[in-house]
Amino acid sequence: MIPKYKLRDGNEIPAIGLGSWQLKGDHCINAVKLALEIGYRHIDTAEIYENEKEIGIAINNFPRDEIFITSKVSGNHLKFNNVIKSCELSLRNLNTNYLDLYLIHWPNPFVSLRETFKAMKKLHDDGKIISFGVSNFDLNLLKKALEIEEIPICVNQVEFHPFFYQKDLLEFCKKHNIILVAYSPLARGKINENKIIKEIARKYEKTPAQISLRWIIQKGAIPIPKASTKEHLKENINVFNWSISKEDEMKIDNIKKFNLISFAFKILNFLVK
Ligand SMILES: NC(=O)c1ccc[n+]([C@@H]2O[C@H](COP(=O)([O-])OP(=O)(O)OC[C@H]3O[C@@H](n4cnc5c(N)ncnc54)[C@H](OP(=O)(O)O)[C@@H]3O)[C@@H](O)[C@H]2O)c1
């Protein structure tokens, strides 16, 4: 059984999810079905990933209330009517009546947060989304957003892995009871190449991917690794009944930083009203 965290609005979210960016077609259907068989109960998608129909097919025979589905509205669809349309299309594609979590995928300096928040409230009031959150919001933008939220911002989904430990943002999120969901938790596979991570992995008889995911979990964040092979899917979920010592956790904290996402998000954050 995968543990769950309580969100700010009282709902619950499983402590690990399956990322689905770049999973397409039958490959996507098979990976999601396999993940559900293995025990995953939290799937992360977005309108821009163009795989919601396939995920809808993969979850079709599963009790809906046992699966947590996150989707995201693209940053270029943040006007009131566009948010509503995007959500309705995601619901049709996923063949479901509601999303467990709906995120603003990235901020847009040309649409006010207030306008998007009103649309999210409407979707929430209509029962189309259960919880609401944001993605790619930095500390300053998150502060701004909290001042004007209409319904609780429960999650901030951001890049977070041993090469990009966003400590200040994490601490801010914790203080405000916002869950940090960690995307690219394996640094898109680069985790396998790091000497310190590899050494720690050998010590615990785990893989570098498991060390990265366990480190994220120990930070109190939720990793959403993307995987498509049975071996990777199994490995990635097997991160709950063991732990890394405080000393080794600190070695990982101090790994030299770099991030994968471009400078563009920083500029977008700065410009949003
Ligand atoms: N909100 C946003 O703006 C945003 C941005 C980026 C990503 N995301 C979300 O976060 C999810 C994860 O991030 P990501 O897809 O960028 O990268 P990631 O999860 O860090 O890495 C995925 C890569 O790692 C490989 N992998 C998976 N498990 C492994 C294991 N145990 N050992 C070795 N390699 C392994 C995968 O290969 P195989 O496929 O061959 O298994 C794939 O090539 C995305 O799928 C998406 O849902 C959100």
General description of the model:
With 273 residues, this protein is of the alpha/beta class. It has one domain: NADP-dependent oxidoreductase domain (TIM Barrel, Alpha-Beta Barrel), CATH 3.20.20.100. Helices cover 42% and strands 16% of the residues. The chain contains eleven helices and ten strands. The chain has an eight-stranded parallel β-sheet with strand order 3-4-5-6-7-8-9-10. A two-stranded antiparallel ribbon has the order 1-2. A hairpin with a 5-residue loop joins strand 1 (4-6) and strand 2 (12-14). Helix 1 packs across helix 9, helix 2 crosses helix 3 and helix 3 crosses helix 4. The termini are far apart. The site of NADP nicotinamide-adenine-dinucleotide phosphate has 27 residues, from helix 9. InterPro entries: AKR, Aldo/ket_reductase_CS, NAD(P)_OxRdtase_dom_sf, NADP_OxRdtase_dom. It comes from Thermoproteota archaeon.
Q: Tell how many strands the DSSP assignment holds.
A: 10
Compute the separation of the termini in Å. 42 Å
Which spans have pLDDT < 50 for at least 5 consecutive residues? none
H/E series: EEEHEHEHEHEHEHEHHEHHH
* CATH fold field value: TIM Barrel
Q: What sort of overall outline do the alpha carbons produce when their principal axes are compared?
A: globular
Sketch the major β-sheet. 8 strands, parallel
Small molecules bound in the structure, each named once? NADP nicotinamide-adenine-dinucleotide phosphate
Strand order of the largest sheet: 3-4-5-6-7-8-9-10
Sheet-strand content, in percent, reads: 15-25%
CATH homologous superfamily annotation? NADP-dependent oxidoreductase domain
Question: How many helical elements?
Answer: 11
Mean pLDDT: 96
Broad CATH class: Alpha Beta
